[in-house]
Amino acid sequence: ITSKMNNTSSIVVFSLSGFNATVNYRVTLFFLTLLCYGLIFVVNVSLILIIILDENLHEPMYICLCNLCINGLYGTAGFYPKFVSDLLSDIPVISYAGCLLQVFVIYSYVKVDFSVLVLMAYDRCVAICRPLEYHSVMSVRRTAVLVSLSWLVPLCCEVMILSLTSRLKLCGSRIQKLYCENWSIVKLACSSTTANDILGLFFISFYIGHVLFIVCSYVQLVKSALKSREGRRKFTQTCVPHLLCLLNVTAALLFDLMYSRYGSASVLQSLKNFMAIQFLIIPPLLNPVIYGLILTKIRSRMISLFMMAGQRVKLRLKV
Is the terminal CB of the chain with fewer CB neighbours within 10 Å at N or C? Predict the structure, then answer.
């Protein structure tokens, strides 16, 4: 839907054509989405509250984990409410401003995820490779600064990307996805996108650098962990869940990136949809579960809370 102003095309509303493949099972998807979002909300909020309320968990690693869960809630809030309302709509559309806002929230969420995972890798590297210096290196002040940067840098990156995207002259209004995505908007441009391409490649390289940093950290961690039984125990308890979360996020994001840039028109739309929303389903749902099951302190705290809740229920039933 477009309006003409000064012989240029000004997009007012985008249509989300990814919903065309959901016509026959929208009711089923609606209830599954509510269930999925409910589970994501419950597991993330539970872990956040456990970390905040238990003073024994006020350590850098758990603070990072808390931020990972907060970020999961932030990112999914940019997708699920709109997705649910679109499932109930005959013609799924989104305003231009709403589209840019959704792009900002969803893709800043991805960038913050990688930044927090890098911070967690650094924390584990110091804890295992330099245990005697850990508390001086990962002081409360330094942890606060690093956590703040893990949010501020991705948010600034996304502002820069969207400032360029918002200046593009667009000659189309159809986005072939279930949500707004920056590359989908850029592909609609009929003006030069060279600056967008260069900045996009720069930030992709920047976050590939994040992954390489984590890989290098793990090489150091493995070398140190193999030297002692205590090192191996620490590595198994705290690094394995971090590694699983990294693989989880990276694999889900690669699906979306490959689909966005190199997706074939012959691929079924329903498969495209699933590939495009993986990183909004799997990481925010599985990350808290992985950490909750593997980290001893959190697992024991959760078990004690469940036992206390069970005892209270028994007491009430007796009364």
Answer: C
